[in-house]
Amino acid sequence: KKLYMASLEKTKKEMEEIIATEGFKKGSFKILQLLTRLRQICIDPQLVFKEYQGGSSKIEQLVDITKGIIENGHKILLFTSFKSALEIVEKKFKENHISTYVIDGSVSAKKRMELVTKFNEGATNVFLITLKAGGTGLTLTSADVVIHLDLWWNPQVENQATDRAHRIGQTKTVEVIKLICKGTIEERILELQTKKKILSDKIIEGKERNQNIFSQLTEKDIKDLLTLDQESLS
Question: Half-sphere exposure of residue 67, counting CA atoms within 13 Å on the CB side?
Answer without folding.
Answer: 12
